């Protein structure tokens, strides 16, 4: 069973970035690494900062195609679910979207 900490938008943001960066360790930009160096563990506590890194990363057309599938949103803490859904909606409405990235919700 998932713990309360695992059922957060922040945890989802960390998981998405981990999924993108681990197979391709050359991808984190200097600005991402600088932000982590400055913020340290606090970075993983801010969904907004994590989502900003996702948006900047996916805006880079050299990234190729990125497909994210978010599932079990009903398990996400209610007070964080809205922020995650709002970020995904803004992404799909064109605020920070590029043509190579798709986010599906299951």
How would you explain this protein's 3D organization?
Strands 1-2 form a two-stranded parallel ribbon. It has one domain. It is mostly helical. The protein has 4 helices and 2 strands; from the N terminus they run H-H-H-E-H-E. Helix 1 packs parallel to helix 3.
How would you briefly describe this protein structure?
The chain is mainly alpha-helical and 106 residues long. The chain is built from 4 helices and 2 strands.
Search tags:
106 residues, 9% strand
Strand percent estimate: 5-15%
- The share of residues in helices is 40-55%
The total count of strands amounts to 2
Q: Rounded to an integer, what's the Rg over CA atoms?
A: 13 Å
Poorly predicted regions? none
Q: What is the averaged pLDDT score?
A: 76
> What count of structural domains?
1
- Largest sheet, if any? 2 strands, parallel
Number of helices: 4
Structural class of the helix and strand makeup?
mainly alpha
User: What's the shape?
Assistant: globular
The N- to C-terminal Cα distance equals 19 Å
SSE order = HHHEHE
Walk across the major sheet and give the strand order.
Answer: 1-2
Summarize the helices and strands and which ones pair or pack.
Layout: H1 9-21, H2 30-39, H3 47-59, E1 66-70, H4 78-92, E2 101-105
Parallel strand pairs: 1-2
Helix pairs in contact: 1-3
């Amino acid at each position: 069973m998932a713990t309360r900490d695992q059922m957060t938008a922040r945890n989802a943001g960390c998981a998405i970035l981990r999924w993108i960066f681990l197979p391709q360790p050359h991808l984190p930009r200097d600005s991402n690494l600088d932000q982590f160096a400055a913020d340290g563990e606090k970075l993983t506590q801010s969904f907004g900062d994590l989502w900003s890194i996702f948006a900047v990363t996916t805006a880079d057309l050299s990234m190729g195609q990125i497909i994210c599938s978010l599932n079990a949103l009903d398990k996400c803490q209610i007070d964080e679910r809205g922020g995650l859904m709002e970020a995904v909606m803004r992404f799909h409405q064109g605020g920070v979207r590029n043509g190579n990235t798709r986010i599906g919700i299951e």
